[in-house]
Structure prediction request, 310 residues.
Amino acid sequence: MRLSTPAPAKVNLVLRVGPLRPDGFHDLLTLLVPLDLADGVEVAISARRGPVRCRVPARPELDGAENLAARAAELFRARFGVHNGVSIRIAKRIPVIAGLGGGSSDAAAVLRCLARAFRVRDARAVAALALEVGSDVPFFLGEGPAWARGRGERLTPADVPVQHLVLLYPRDPALAIRAGDAYRWLDASREASGAPVPPLPRTPGRLRPSHVGNDLQPACLARVPALSTLLGRLTEGGASAVMMSGSGPTVFGAFPARRAAAEAARKIAKEEGAATSKVEVVLARTMRRHPRVTSWRSPRSASSPSTKRS
Prediction:
């Protein structure tokens, strides 16, 4: 059996961070929204016993057991007593270590494919596996935009109007930000200020402009000031709101219409030298629902005359 699904990126339109918990995590209140920017995930399941294999053809350094998608498959097999060989292939389009949730989305895509293949309908058990893989993974198992609390596992569906975004991802490895570093920088800045950490607000019923913000952003900008320049480019380009997504380093701006976003993306790409691989500029749109799992079809069969007639 072979199944496939897009694995969408996400942005955090809101990210509020509570105090550090005894388990080493922070309580969060975040609004997660999927994008039409997506990896392509294919999962092939053998009729025979075998290992989990994971390949990312364009990024061979991501191959193997350490990929979150492979870890998700191993956890699924252990939890549900599956011994069939599983081969995962990921067409990588989402930037890596970018605050866009690409690895988490790939892992969730694998869990969705395996749950369908083996007819697992215990959504709570699959969600528990997702949380073992990573805090963002449960979101990608949901229906669409959602407020998330706790580590990200307590989800409340959110009604978010379609947003037209320009994403700026700096390719310089020196500007990469690991999530753990971002949270440590925030904790250090809070400790230095001496001010008590305010409690997290209640989950808002609707998104309002006053809600938009990212608590990690000031600490990250202090350590990686080049990101402030990129935020300025988006503001100058006409964005109505600009911020960093998740733990960065990707920043994004929201625009009133697709045409305005496309014009800003074109201008910023020219100014920032995207042609010389300094900054990846991506035009994206938020989605109201996550994509579904489908049976895999080769591109050749999809374009054949018989397929078109059907």
Summary: The two ends are 22 Å apart (CA to CA). The first helix runs from residue 68 to 80. The domain at 164-285 is CATH 3.30.70.890 (Alpha-Beta Plaits).
